[in-house]
Amino acid sequence: MNCSAYCETSPKIEWKKDGTFLNLVSDDRRHLLPDGSLLINSVVHSKHNKPDEGYYQCVATVDSLGTIVSRTAKLTVAGLPRFTSQPESSSVYRGSSAILNCEVNVDLAPFVRWEQDRQPVFLDDRVFKLPSGALIISNATDTDGGLYRCIIESGGTPKYSDEAELKVLPDPEVPRNLMFLRQPSSLTKVTGQSAVFPCVAVGFPTPYIRWTRNEEELITEGYERLLLLAGGSLEIREVAEDDAGTYSCIADAGNETVEAQAELSVQVPPEFLKRPANIYAHESMDIVFECEVTGKPTPTVKWVKNGDMVIPSDYFKIVKEHNLQVLGLVKSDEGFYQCIAENDVGNAQAGAQLIILDLAPATTGPLPSAPRDVVATLVSTRFIRLTWRTPASDPQGDNLTYSIFYTKEGINRERVENTSRPGEMQVTIQNLMPETVYVFRVVAQNKHGPGESSVPLKVATQPEVQLPGPAPNIRAYASSPTSVTVTWETPLSGNGEIQNYKLYYMEKGQDNEQDVDVGGLSYTINGLKKYTEYSFRVVAYNKHGPGVSTQDVVVRTLSDVPSAPPQNLTLEVRNSKSIMLQWQPPPPGTHSGQITGYKIRYRKVSRKSDVTESIGGTQLFQLIEGLERGTEYSFRVAALTVNGTGPATDWISAETFESDLDETRVPEVPSSLHVRPLVTSIVVSWTPPENQNIVVRGYAIGYGIGSPHAQTIKVDYKQRYYTIENLDPSSHYVITLKAFNNVGEGIPLYESAVTRPHSDTSEVDLFVINAPYTPVPDPSPMMPPVGVQASILSHDTIRITWADNSLPKNQKITDARYYTVRWKTNIPANTKYKTANATTLSYLVTGLKPNTLYEFSVMVTKGRRSSTWSMTAHGTTFELVPTSPPKDVTVVSKEGKPRTIIVNWQPPSEANGKITGYIIYYSTDVNAEIHDWVIEPVVGNRLTHQIQELTLDTPYYFKIQARNSKGMGPMSEAVQFRTPKAESSDKMPNDQASGSAGKGSRPVDLGPDYKPPLGGSNSPHGSPTSPLDSNMLLVIIVSVGVITIVIVVIVAVFCTRRTTSHQKKKRAACKSVNGSHKYKGNSKDVKPPDLWIHHERLELKPIDKSPDPNPIMTDTPIPRNSQDITPVDNSMDSNIHQRRNSYRESVRNTPSTDTMPASSSQTCADHQDPESTTGTYLANAQEEDSAQNLPTAHVRPSHPLKSFAVPAVPAAGPAYDPALPSTPLLTQQAPNHPVHSVKTASIGTLGRTRPPMPVVVPSAPDMQETTRMLEDSESNYEPDELTKEMAHLEGLMKDLNAITTA
What is the mean pLDDT of residues 121-143? Predict the structure, then answer.
């Protein structure tokens, strides 16, 4: 047996047999050759003494390095040749097949050969030797006759079998029964070997042999590995794992076939998917050797260190199936570690070396002293948290890292845990044993090396509460269709007296688990659903609380007869002797078992006692034939299970035709054809031919530009309209309609139409058919259902209801009409319609997708008459929690910032609603409980997120979960990312600064499900709000409050002064409400306000100057976009555009707005004239939608322009409510005081007051400007200025009149 090992230092080679070293020095028969191989001379073997058989293994050792072992090899000694069966004399018909048996002991079978008449038999396509030694002769000829014997030649004296004579008889050519001479038998082979399935059949006619694998035809031609041998046997060369399966040999003689089967099992020796790698480590560290193997049967894995088996312990553990973990390395752990995998067909080994490195010598420089005051601040059953103070040698300690060494008391194997970042002075040691004493010491380390160790600290973990273990042997069985009995036994580890049990149960696929308290060891739960799967589990309780739960057991309740009848039974009269029944299964949840069929009962309406019964399969339709002409029949259907028949539907009736329709000639011309052109489509509607006695199978629609023969579409005979899509705009199409049946197509009806131009979008894609009424002889098409409504019931169910105008007012159906409901969604665009039949005026559509818009329409059919499809109704199903995780999750490092990573993802493919947020989970331990992962919430419209301040050179794992209004979806698979090893020294200060700033200002959507961490602390990588931000926020709040109070006081004083001493000014001001006011600055120049005119609705009328206390004010249209705004004065163009652009910027950059109180203008209005105030808004403006990003109020003009109004002074008001409409603002500048102003429109209705609407301004004027504006507004009402203002307005109106006249 060969063995060789290589090393720079020559290794010492030894051999083991059955696990024990062989002493080869004093052994005469077994010798060690110079290359390390083992030579065995004169093998000894007898029935009772087999010293040389066994498992051999080679061991190589180098004293300074360690030991490795080889894989094992099994040595067996072949026995003496012997025959288990010998050939027997036989005869064979010419052209048929024969088999001569010669079975020998299996290990010598390859040494068998055959002789005919004492001459060697040469094997070919016709003569073949099986692996067992038997000889097959196919298509026998006269030359095959003779004496045959088989010979075993195994190196010694040949051994001969008895001779047997084979006679070849002439073929009588009379039919003979088909039979197998040799059938295939099941085989087990190792990959790479060959497998032969013998299969020999005889009979007349001569049979043809073919093979199948797993019921699929096996094609041998063209495949080098598959060979068809003599007589039809199959050989598979170089067997692979995929070749396993059931092989069938089928002998086919034309009028008769026989079949034989055999299994091929394929075994695979162990192979390594991942081999251990060499590891270099320091003492006290933890290391893991990885080893991943495959094979069939599944290999067992053991670890060997320096040739000796590794026994698992507290410090040597097998993790993740086959990996070896060594905790707290010591120097003696050095050496060679080998992973040995073994199964029934082989073994393999792979090794790696562990080298313990000495600590690097410290560089010159001061080393830190021992850390001070090491204490255990938190002690639990399985973890301990340690804290300490900085060493006395380095009180700051910002650049120190710490190593914590710990071990069980009395064990000299220390483990080490390092702090995660410099300056950190606490650590949590996990995975400890309960009620165990551990010894801890802490060592500080600076750039020169490790310093002194702290004084050892002994800490004992807490004892674990003794809770009960799981209850063994839990079993559940259904005792009836509505009850299940569950039994169990007392827990093996009760840990004290069991007080009671809690039995939990839940319907499979649901999430609402229920429980019941049980005192004994069994319980029967009643009131369950029939034929439904339930899961059960048991938890035992003692005085400490609940113990470990059992595994779930699942059982299905027994079946019963269905509890509801089939749904939507419809009848369709096919001809004078047959009626087609169609129905839907009983509602879900009422089947009470597996539906095995349906029972149909029918009778003549005139003879109710004479009932015929028909039982069909599980199909949802049945054609009842052999009926009488012109006779009314009633039908009902019931569902069947193995338990019996469920309730039946109500009787519904239909009458067979008096006579069958004629299909000896083509249909006549349709009675009418109407076309309705749209931009890219034409809606075609028609009525059937007047002669209803000829069969119509369908309609053919031909169309094309100028000729109807370019395209042809065929539709069902029930259809009455069709929309031709994908046409060219502004094109002349010719359309033809022909009815057809099996004889051919009828006479065509022609119509032409011109599609609309592109610019005409008035009625694009409307499915309303308004064809003019065309009288046709009875029976005419039925009226389509009306009032179709879709009521949303859940995320997958919508109820469709409708009315039928052809029914009486009570909408009661008394005849055999039925309704067809169809529905589809437009996503994806090519979705096909689904249909269902109903016999009532409603239908429940189930199985829809969540958060999806569907369209529904209904048609009615009565006998041979059908309606067109109704108007469509639309409904969007409710949202559901996401059912798939976010996809394409990637993690990349941010350029220049190695501590910052960027997470990118895509929304879930099954979002089932609008995604409102995401939660990113990340951790350094992929196996940690999910509540131990750090979370980062992200708003729903973002697909990327930055995470900062991560630890360098550390693997992180990331998962993402999506949220919509219904809750959280599933998590994505964990994505691993290792942070870079080091950050560039020139960028590090800046990166850290900008990173912390960015983190503080990062917008985070915490979402409805977010709970803050306990103790108020942020996540490990979050950043707390700085004191500077808090102070700034406080200053802003106080300042806004003070400004608001001062403004209110000034307004109050101003109102009081004007009320008591300026009555005259007030009256004048109220008269001039229809005029234009202005703000007065330092300059005496008067600038008119900007006047915005909607030219399409402009109408000039005389200005009413009378002191009417209730002038009727009309509205000024407020521009909706820049195209609607037209300046009156051309000289003001540039100012207007400048102001408009500045307004857009101010709105875009202003996150919050203040409202202008309209009540400030009431200071100049009489109480009986509330409508003339300039702050009053259109009532209908409240009905307009408001956009939150760009506040806008759409005020629709109902009357031409009649007056202009100037707004009151803006002042601080309540917070802006985004639900209220708001209007864009235009800045009006005085020479030295830029003031935000707004165009407002007032409309009045005599004698009625309207509530004032708030006006949104981008930002309030500052304190100084507001005061000046208030002072200026007092002087606005001087008599001479009013006169000037009125004169100016009259001139302006004349200019406007001239413009419009021109």
Answer: 84
Cα–chain-centroid distance for residue 629?
57
pLDDT confidence bin for 1169, thresholds 50/70/90: very low
Residue 1043 class from Cβ within 10 Å (0-12 exposed, 13-18 middle, 19+ buried)? middle
1059 contacts: CB under 8 Å, gap ≥ 6: 1163
Identify any residues that bridge with 74 across adjacent strands, giving them in sequence order.
Answer: 55
* CA gap 990, 979 in Å, rounded: 19
CA distance 949 to 1023: 10
H/E element, 636? strand 632-641
What value, to the nearest 5°, has the Cα angle with vertex 672 and ends 667 and 675? 120
Query: Mean pLDDT over residues 967-995, rounded?
Result: 69
Question: CA-to-CA distance for 58 and 36, rounded, in angstroms?
Answer: 8
pLDDT band at residue 328 under the 50/70/90 scheme: confident
* Token code pair at residue 433: 């044993």
How high is the pLDDT of residue 1280?
A: 63
- The DSSP call for residue 1289 is H
Bridge partner list, 55: 74
| Residue 112 and residue 152 in contact, taking contact as beta carbons nearer than 8 Å | yes
543-574 pLDDT, tens digit per residue, is 888 888 999 999 999 999 999 999 999 998 88
Q: Which residues contact 605 (CB under 8 A, 6 or more apart)?
A: 632, 633, 634, 653
Rounded Cα distance between 908 and 1196, Å, is 42
Write phi, then psi, for 1172 (nearest 5 degrees): -85, 5
| DSSP character string of 544-598 | TEE-PPPPPEEEEPPP-S-SS--EEEEEEE-SSS-EEEEEEPPPTT---S---EE
Angle (CA) 1083-1086-1088 rounded to 5° is 140
- pLDDT, mean over the chain: 76
Q: Burial level of 34, CB count in 10 A (0-12/13-18/19+)? A: exposed
Pairing of strands 545-546, 682-689: unpaired
Angle at the Cα of 947 from the Cα atoms of 946 and 951, rounded to 5 degrees? 145
Least confident interval from 73-87, 190-204, 426-440, 469-483: 73-87
Task: Report the half-sphere exposure of 901 (CA within 13 A, side-chain side).
Answer: 25
Q: Are strands 698-705 and 732-740 parallel, antiparallel or unpaired?
A: antiparallel
Tell me the mean pLDDT in the region 498-520: 90
What is the Cα–Cα distance from 758 to 680, expressed in whole angstroms?
A: 8
C-alpha 34/C-alpha 37 separation (Å) is 7
Bond before 297 cis per omega within 30 degrees: yes
Which is more confident, 260 or 985?
Answer: 260
Q: Indicate whether 181 pLDDT > 60.
A: yes
Residues 6+ apart with CB under 8 A from 1093: 1126, 1128, 1201, 1296
CA distance 166 to 1246: 129
Structure tokens at 982: 């080091």
Condensed to tens digits (0 to 9), the pLDDT of residues 1070-1117 reads 333 344 333 334 433 444 444 444 443 343 444 444 444 443 433 433
Mean pLDDT score, 1254-1265: 42
End-to-end CA distance of the chain: 118
Residue 182 above 70 pLDDT?
yes
Q: Is 212 exposed, middle or buried (0-12, 13-18, 19+ CB in 10 A)?
A: middle
Q: Distance of alpha carbon 425 from its chain centroid, rounded? A: 43
* Other CB atoms within 10 Å distance of the CB of residue 658: 9
Ramachandran area for residue 139 (φ above 0: left; ψ -120 to 50: alpha; else beta): left
Better-predicted residue by pLDDT, 499 or 27: 499
Find the mean pLDDT for residues 525-535.
92
Chain center to CA of 842: 33
Q: What is the pTM (predicted TM-score) of this model?
A: 0.38
